[in-house]
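Lab manual, section 2.4: Encoding a predicted structure.

Procedure: take the sequence of the chain (232 residues), apply the prediction step described in section 2.3, and record the output as structure tokens. A sample record is shown.
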Amino acid sequence: MSLTNTLWMSLFWSALTIALYRVGKAVYRRAPRWWASPLLIAPVLLILAALGLHATYQEYIRATHWLVSLLAPATVAFAIPIYEKRTLIRQNWALLVVGVTVGSGTAIVSSWGLARLLGLNQSILLSLLPRSISTPFAMTVSGDIGGVPGLTAVFVVITGVLGAAIGEGLLQILPLRSVFSRGALFGMGAHGAGTAKAHLIDAEAGTIAGLVMVLSGLLNVLAAPALAHFFR
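Recorded output:
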């Protein structure tokens, strides 16, 4: 493929990805339901476009690799909410440590158990393990433990969308009365999508969800070498 064609392909798929995500956000503002999440709408529309144009995943990812590279500075930017909420962390550090550790452990063990139950191969199993943390962290952990980061990103989106949808229903049946516990449920169970949903329910719960999401991501990144040794 010539340099000119490569450039045009990159511009086309990048612009289409951004445009469809904005379409998804507009739809979600009008109908804030789990099935209207831009994390679901944009990928579905992109898949349909790729099928219609007979484009392969390799062609798409080559054209939009610069978007993926933005995940690195996004990971660094997570330091900002941690700094801003340092007082909250100091006041509740024990609760946060226990909650994030138990939540992360439960997510990893349940992912491993599900993969074994379905008879998934080792590569898919390792890609599934970091599904319960936000995409920048999850792709980093996936690469470190031998998974496929691109596949992990898909699992993260599915977990986030379904977790945000199920989480709202769980609030109706679980005895979670404090803002802290309600926010932690979304941040631990549905990372970015859950944090967005928590903000719609209560601003403070959204703050807690974002904090738990960041801390769980950091914990998993730090634990990645141990996970790699254990699961390989």
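Check your result against the sample. The mean pLDDT is 84.
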